[in-house]
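Complex 277.
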Amino acid sequence: MYEIVTKRELAANIYLIEVAAEDVAKKAKPGQFVILRLNEKGERVPLTIAGLDLENGTVAVAFHAVGRSTKKLAKMKEGDSIHDLVGPLGNPTEIAKFGRILCVAGGVWCAPLRFIVQALRDKGNEIVIVAAGRTKDTLVFEKELKELSDEFYVATDDGSKGHKGLDFLKDLLKTQKFDHAMAMGQVVLLQTVTEITRAHNLKTMVTLASIMVDGMGMCGACRVTVAGETKFACMDGPEFDGHQVDFEELIRRQRVYLPEERMASMLYEKLGGMKRG
Ligand SMILES: Cc1cc2nc3c(=O)[nH]c(=O)nc-3n(C[C@H](O)[C@H](O)[C@H](O)COP(=O)(O)OP(=O)(O)OC[C@H]3O[C@@H](n4cnc5c(N)ncnc54)[C@H](O)[C@@H]3O)c2cc1C
Ligand code: FES
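Predicted structure with FE2/S2 (inorganic) cluster bound:
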């Protein structure tokens, strides 16, 4: 059992929890993820590591409560325990001296981005961050990311804060030279960023949150096509060169269980979150 040591609401329906998992904390690196199950019948929920506390042996993850499992997790309190948590999984982010790096993250993904950016900064990179969200209410860690960056921008889909959409990046890339880029968030954000950076031949690593089950390369659920080849996001990723990713296929695969996910979420709400599993 893995105790939730701290829990904080970062924005509406977006939470950061620190979980006691000393063995995972000892080995984890920025960009890796864990898979947790809330109980023995629960589905497996992959979440990206958003921080580590080696002294207290905790791993931080941030999650957006979007469906049954994450809504259940959102109801848990400090002192409650998660049934199991495996990790660290996936490959760490490449932490190297690139030069000037453009980092774009949407909503909850700003939390793991912060962890990655801390490491990239320590390597002496210049960091330009874009914190994106559907509305201003879905932005998290603005202050922290601003502090970590050399330049900081906010963008919202509805224009409620900062730039309206990500089109301003086109001008930014015309006026500034970048050596590396990375993007984390919904597929549409990854697609938008990579289309803009493609025009400048700016290598852009994107984190692919494809559907995962075992997270260890055995089930094939997470397969994605990158540069015409089948890759497993859990073992070969989760970060890939965005200019080589078949995003349309990824979107199709992410929607495969949509009716079941909607039904599970609806039943969970109707039953008042009492059912297990
Ligand atoms: C490597 C990786 C890292 C991730 N990191 C984060 C993170 O740091 N924070 C965060 O909020 N979310 C993250 N996600 C997405 C998160 O795992 C899903 O939102 C979660 O599993 C939804 O479960 P649910 O039952 O609440 O919702 P569901 O109703 O089951 O699903 C809601 C949405 O989540 C997607 N999803 C469902 N199950 C999975 C699964 N097993 N693997 C991947 N996507 C799934 C569905 O396609 C759907 O779009 C990550 C996914 C992957 C693969
Ligand atoms: S999640 Fe099973 S192979 Fe990647």
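The chain has two domains: 2-89, 100-254.
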